[in-house]
């Protein structure tokens, strides 16, 4: 059986020279790769007491929903500003060039619920840090954050030092 890393397509010099882009779509396009990715994420939380799985738009949905389904847990989508129809809370965060805002429904997390956050990639950690802050503002507890891939050279894990963070695949560079 192939290792998950073997399903990841690496594209040199994209989006700029010196960067190796780690393409998650090559995992999604292979049934065995997709199953291995979901199973590997789920393995990271097998001993975690969790009430809710939450994921950020859009690839956090792709990997978080099957995990929530397998564990028979609810899934909470965390979306870009203006995409959710009910009353929301929002959190701004910084990007490399500018800022962005994510939102979640105000009633999506109940006080005391234990939440696992799922996303495909940790780079600088800004998006998932903003998601964790929103969960906490609603009274939830972030018990684990799981990424499919980590770009360790961007030091996102340092930004999330107060959380239990794991990644399935870790790349040393950017």
Could you walk me through the main structural features you see in this protein, from its secondary elements to its overall organization?
The two termini are 28 Å apart. The chain has five helices and nine strands, in the order E-E-H-H-E-H-E-E-E-E-H-E-H-E. Helix 2 (31-44) packs across helix 3 (59-71). It has a seven-stranded mixed beta sheet with strand order 5-6-4-3-7-8-9, with helices on both faces. A two-stranded antiparallel sheet has the order 1-2. The chain has helices at 25-28, 31-44, 59-71, 126-137, 156-159, and strands at 9-12, 20-23, 52-56, 75-80, 88-95, 98-105, 114-122, 141-151, 165-171. It is globular, with a radius of gyration of 16 Å.
Task: Please describe the topology of this protein.
Blueprint: E1 9-12, E2 20-23, H1 25-28, H2 31-44, E3 52-56, H3 59-71, E4 75-80, E5 88-95, E6 98-105, E7 114-122, H4 126-137, E8 141-151, H5 156-159, E9 165-171
Parallel strand pairs: 3-4, 3-7, 7-8, 8-9
Antiparallel strand pairs: 1-2, 4-6, 5-6
Spell the H/E element sequence.
EEHHEHEEEEHEHE
Shape: globular
Helix content: 25-40%
Number of strands: 9
Helical run tally: 5
Residue stretches low in confidence (pLDDT < 50, at least 5 long) are none
Q: What structural class do helix, strand and pairing data support?
A: alpha/beta
Reported for the largest beta sheet, the result is: 7 strands, mixed
C-alpha Rg (nearest Å): 16 Å
Q: What distance separates the N and C termini?
A: 28 Å
On the 0 to 100 scale, the average pLDDT is 96
Strand content: 35-45%
How are the strands of the biggest sheet laid out side by side?
Answer: 5-6-4-3-7-8-9
């Amino acid at each position: 059986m192939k290792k998950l890393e073997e399903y990841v397509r690496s594209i040199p010099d994209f989006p700029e020279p010196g960067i190796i882009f780690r393409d998650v779509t090559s995992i999604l396009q292979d049934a065995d790769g997709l199953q291995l990715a979901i199973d590997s994420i789920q393995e990271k939380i097998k001993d975690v007491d969790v009430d809710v799985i939450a994921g950020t738009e859009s690839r956090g949905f792709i990997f978080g929903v099957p995990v929530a389904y397998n564990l028979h847990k609810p899934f909470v989508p965390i979306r870009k500003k203006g995409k959710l129809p009910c009353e929301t809370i929002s959190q701004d965060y910084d990007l490399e060039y500018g800022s962005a805002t994510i939102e979640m429904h105000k009633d999506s997390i109940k006080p005391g619920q234990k939440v696992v956050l799922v996303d495909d990639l940790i780079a600088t950690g800004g998006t998932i840090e903003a998601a964790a802050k929103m969960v906490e503002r609603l009274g939830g507890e972030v018990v684990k954050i799981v990424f499919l891939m980590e770009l360790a050279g961007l030091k996102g894990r340092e930004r999330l030092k107060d959380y239990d963070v794991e990644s399935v695949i870790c790349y040393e560079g950017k």
